[in-house]
Amino acid sequence: MKVLMIGDVVARPGRVAVMERIQDLREQHGVDLAVMNAENVAGGFSITPPLAEQLFSAGIDVMTSGNHIFDKREVIPYIERQPRLLRPANYPPNSPGRGMWVGEVKGVRVAVLNLIGRVFMGPADDPFRAAEELIASIPPDVKVRLVDMHAEATSEKVAMGWYLDGRVSAVVGTHTHVQTADERILTEGTAYISDIGMTGSYAGVIGMKTEDVIARFTSAVYKRADHATGSVRICAVVLDIDEETGRAREISRLSLPHEQ
Ligand code: FE2
Hints:
Blueprint: E1 2-6, H1 11-29, E2 33-37, H2 49-58, E3 62-64, H3 75-81, E4 100-105, E5 108-116, H4 127-137, E6 144-150, H5 154-164, E7 170-174, E8 184-185, E9 191-193, E10 200-201, H6 210-217, E11 232-241, E12 248-258
Parallel strand pairs: 1-2, 2-3, 5-6, 6-7, 7-9
Antiparallel strand pairs: 1-11, 4-5, 8-9, 10-11, 11-12
The structure holds fe (ii) ion (FE2).
């Protein structure tokens, strides 16, 4: 089965690119399941229910997230009733929403897991232990298993890749908004990349307005940055997974310019 995983979709430039291109990408790559990281969709911070509904209608099947997921209050009741929008599984147990989705795509059972790292990130429970517990709860007939490891440190993401090698189909990194060139299939058949990269404007600093971010770095005054516009790219990976065994056959990187 073919899976498209789109990296952090940032603000209006990112979500417009996804909405305009998702059907073409699905056709071009024969995509059975499209997953995107949605934690930056609303101006760079979280997602609102109407934006989530628009993206689902456009052709996204499942959304993962990360540290910004609860920045918009309105996502809280929505995530409780929308099983295809995930938050990190290793958040404290009282957090709204779920960290895993198990469903069926064209007759194939699939699990999508969302984890968050702890190195240079806010507090969270141990993602390795959380992954262990979640994987133990997946029914054995669910062979296709996709993990979004939302984390800053490459070492933590590489470690998670090896930790889950042979137990999941793919471990893909998100959060840094910078695509890495280390995609590969690990020894036991798990596809891996340290970061899928950002879908959004490359005219700014990881999707946000350059002046706003520089002002923050060059003074002690916190200013919430506006999102950048222009030079839009879609960053994603296409996975080819053997649905009988769950092993990945191929992982290929996409970094596509998108005129807006
Ligand atoms: Fe993040």
